[in-house]
Design goal:
Elements: H1 2-20, H2 29-38, H3 42-58, H4 61-74, H5 79-91, H6 95-105, H7 108-116, H8 122-136, H9 141-157, E1 164-167, H10 174-183, H11 192-199, E2 204-210, E3 220-227, H12 234-237, E4 252-260, H13 271-285, E5 291-294, H14 301-307, H15 317-330, H16 341-348, E6 352-357, H17 364-370, E7 374-378, H18 384-394, H19 401-409, H20 411-421
Parallel strand pairs: 4-5
Antiparallel strand pairs: 1-2, 2-3, 3-4, 6-7
Amino acid sequence: MTLLADLLSTIFERRYLQLSRSPQDGRPLEELAGDLVGSAGETSGLALAQNILAGFAQYDDTQKLAFFRTVATTMNIDPEKVRTALDRYERAPSKATYRDFMTASEPRRQELFRRLNRVPGATGTLVKMRADLLRLRGEAPELDALDLDLRHLFASWFNRGFLVLRPISWESPAHILDRIIAYEAVHAIDSWDDLRRRLQPADRRCFAFFHPSMPDEPLIFVEVALTKGIPSSIQTLLAEDRAAMPAEDADTAVFYSISNCQAGLASISFGNSLIKQVASDLAAELGGLKTFVTLSPIPGLNRWLEKEGLAEDGASPVDMKATAAWYLMNAKARGGLPFDPVARFHLGNGAIVHAVHADADISEKGRAQSGGTMVNYLYDLNKIAQNHEKFATTQEVAAADAVRSLAKSSALAQTWKGKADA
């Protein structure tokens, strides 16, 4: 009976939305938003939410920005109410005073987005709304606070417990394959033949996280090559004429491309869970797999060299390899974390810098970002947790001895030593 009641309720809600969907009677969306937060009726609230979402979709950028500013300022916290509620809780801690503090300290706009999310299919729409916010917000601090509210909500709505890991194969629905082509952000997929080479052979795999509210939209996906030994070139790994091998013969799983798919989910981390889950699943499926590595770009290298005034045109592959090793070990951003975003990601997941390769990506993009240099990050399934904890605590870059020696041989090591001595 409970299942039947739920089904009837869902049918009624959707039918009500179809019947009640109408123009906003000339009222601005900001006014409808205020009505939605103050509404008590669930079904009437759904109709309001539907009208707001439909209206926002018709807005141009100027109107969207005005909507964001109004929501950010008129549905903000009242600092005085927060201070008063906190004082009452400190003087007399109780369920009631704590509830009052929670109510005062949560902006009304968070409840607005929760109520908007009650509309069937609204989760993906709200993700696109945040993408608009990130694109339009500029330097406005009140919009930064609004974005933090959305990040807070999305971190709950998209936590690992809700995500579904699905394999992507050449037999997957065409609309999913279209999205893999469109969202690939590391090594562009040039054609359907290129996609088939990455998905169809037995020694190639692809996995993606999906959310139940967005079943046709991958959130993030990873492409995996099953190999013998650790590869040192992306062109060799993706060569058109390469010979495929049985998956059972592989001893290494190579994560060679990880792509986030939804701009509106920026800063919501899925990649660490994705890699660990895929590695675990592959290890269980293929007992011969002993090594789990990436073949990763070094996107910040040339940018950092230019920033520090150290860029050298025409550096040899050997010099670029040693430079890249030093950069990965020593170049820091704010807070002592590695300057390179890919290094921050993998080291934060518990990997180590295993090997650096010259002329590993000879594409125009690879040359532009790192002189063609790439890096293997090694995931030791028995040490991931230990490495993660150490990196989170000390920000120390874990690396193989060969990488440490290579870094010390770099001309940068002497340059930086000279600066320190001076």
